[in-house]
C-alpha cells in the first residue's frame, strides 16, 4: 500500500476547501485517500462485527438510501462517482454511520428507534451529510497535524490497535470501538441541514426529523444512546431543525407534487 502524501505537500494542495454551506475547511487529504481509509475500515468492521442477514431489513434500508442518493447527486456533482455500499450490523444499539467512499452502516437497533421511513431517512441523510461535507477529512487532518508521520492508510487496514481505534473515532464510528470523539457543533449543524434537504428532496417528510431526535432522547432513558454519544442530541438541535423547517417543507411539497413518494416499508 502506498504511503500517504507528506504533510507539507498535502498542506499545499488540499488545505483550502469550502463546505457545502460555505464554511472554510482544513482538509489535508485527497478524497481518494479518504475513500481508501473508509473502505479499509468498513471491511475491518465487517470482519470483527456480526452482520444482519435479514433480507427485509436490507431491502428497507436500501430503499431509503436509493431514494436519497439521486438527490445528493443532483446537488453535489462531485459525489456522483461514489459507489455507495450499505451494511446492516446485528447490534441492539441505536446507531448509524457513513464513511468516506460511500460506506453506510446501520445497526438493527436503529430500525426500532427510527419508527418509519421518514425517520430513517433523517438518520441516513444526516450521515451522508457528514460525508459530503468532508467532516472526516477535517477531523483526520487535525489528528494528522498533531501526530505527524502517522501512516493512516496502513492503520486503517491493520489490526485493531489503539491507533486504529483513534482513526475510527476520527472517521465517525468511534463509539463502536471505544474511542468516542463527538462531531463538533458546526459539523452537526451542517449534517442536519444537508440531511433535512436531502430527505425533503427525496419526498420524505422533514417534520419526522424532529420526531426522530425525540425518539433518540427517549431511547436513552437515564443514559445517553450510543448514537447520541457521537452525535450530540440537544434541544438546540431541534430548535435549529425547526428554524429550517419552512424551507424544507416547501422542498418536500414540490417533491411530492413531482411524484416523489417513497414507499419503503419494513
Features:
266 residues, mainly alpha, two-stranded antiparallel ribbon
Structural description of this entry:
The protein has 266 residues and is mostly helical. Helices cover 57% and strands 8% of the residues. The chain contains 13 helices and 5 strands. The longest helix is centred in the N-terminal third of the chain and has 21 residues, at 55-75. The model is unreliable at 1-14, 148-158 and 174-180 (pLDDT under 50).
Care to give the gist of this entry?
By secondary structure, the protein is mainly alpha-helical. The protein is 57% helix and 8% strand.
Provide the spatial order of strands within the biggest beta sheet: 3-5-4
Total DSSP helices: 13
User: Describe the biggest sheet?
Assistant: 3 strands, mixed
- State the separation between the terminal residues, measured CA to CA: 41 Å
Q: Give me the count of strands.
A: 5
User: Residue-averaged pLDDT, rounded?
Assistant: 80
Q: Which range best describes the helical content: under 10%, 10-25%, 25-40%, 40-55%, 55-70% or over 70%?
A: 55-70%
Strand fraction equals 5-15%
Reading the helices and strands in chain order gives HEEHHEEEHHHHHHHHHH
Radius of gyration: 18 Å
Query: What is the structural class?
Result: mainly alpha
Q: What is the overall shape? A: globular
- Low-pLDDT runs: 1-14, 148-158, 174-180
Amino acid at each position: 500500500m502506498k504511503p500517504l502524501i507528506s504533510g507539507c505537500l498535502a498542506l499545499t494542495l488540499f488545505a483550502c476547501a469550502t463546505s457545502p454551506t460555505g464554511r472554510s475547511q482544513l482538509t489535508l487529504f485527497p478524497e481518494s485517500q479518504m475513500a481508501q481509509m473508509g473502505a479499509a475500515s468498513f471491511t475491518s468492521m465487517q470482519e470483527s462485527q456480526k452482520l444482519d442477514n435479514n433480507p427485509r431489513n436490507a431491502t428497507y434500508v436500501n430503499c431509503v438510501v436509493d431514494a436519497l442518493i439521486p438527490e445528493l447527486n443532483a446537488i453535489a456533482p462531485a459525489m456522483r462517482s461514489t459507489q455507495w455500499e450499505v451494511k446492516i450490523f446485528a447490534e441492539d444499539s441505536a446507531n448509524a454511520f457513513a464513511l468516506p467512499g460511500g460506506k453506510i452502516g446501520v445497526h438493527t437497533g436503529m430500525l426500532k428507534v427510527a419508527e418509519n421511513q421518514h425517520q430513517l431517512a433523517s438518520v441516513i441523510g444526516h450521515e451522508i451529510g457528514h460525508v459530503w461535507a468532508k467532516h472526516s477529512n477535517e477531523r483526520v487532518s487535525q489528528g494528522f497535524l498533531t501526530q505527524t508521520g502517522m501512516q493512516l492508510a496502513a492503520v486503517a487496514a491493520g489490526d485493531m490497535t489503539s491507533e486504529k481505534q483513534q482513526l475510527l473515532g476520527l472517521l465517525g464510528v468511534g463509539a463502536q470501538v471505544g474511542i468516542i470523539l463527538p462531531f463538533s457543533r458546526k459539523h452537526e449543524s451542517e449534517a442536519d441541514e444537508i440531511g433535512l434537504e436531502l430527505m425533503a428532496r427525496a419526498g420524505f417528510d422533514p417534520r419526522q426529523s424532529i420526531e426522530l431526535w425525540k425518539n433518540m432522547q427517549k431511547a436513552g432513558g437515564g443514559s445517553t444512546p450510543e448514537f447520541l454519544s457521537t452525535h450530540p442530541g440537544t434541544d438546540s438541535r431541534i430548535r435549529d431543525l425547526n428554524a429550517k423547517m419552512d424551507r424544507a417543507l416547501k422542498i418536500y411539497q414540490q417533491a411530492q407534487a413531482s411524484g416523489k413518494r417513497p414507499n419503503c416499508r419494513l
